[in-house]
Amino acid sequence: QVQLVESGGGLVQAGGSLRLSCAASGRYAMGWFRQTPGKEREFVAGISWSGTTTNYVESVRGRFTISRDNALNTAYLQMNSLKPEDTAVYYCAAGYLYGTREYEYKYWGQGTQVTVSS
User: Fold this and answer.
1) What is d(CA 96, CA 37) in angstroms, rounded to the nearest whole number?
2) Residues 17-35 pLDDT 10s
3) 16 vs 80: CA distance, rounded Å
């Protein structure tokens, strides 16, 4: 069983930055998803195990960067130029593909709240 431990959420003003971290052991692709009340969980970004391939939802492209440090077994989501609409619970996930669908990920973190004030 793989445990994912997220950290780095919080409250930030619009235009600010946050970095989320997700510690996970094993050779997995990693992804970040987010969810707001009453809505389905949305794919945000994914990265291959090697770190050489990434993908993003269009709404965060150019503002968010996903990366990983396999020596530390940690994936990151650097979020810049944050907007109020980025407010959500952010989840990291581990799987065999860095796809955009929830079913492509096998393990999930507990979620961390990101709140962007206007």
Assistant:
1) 28
2) 999 999 998 889 999 999 9
3) 6
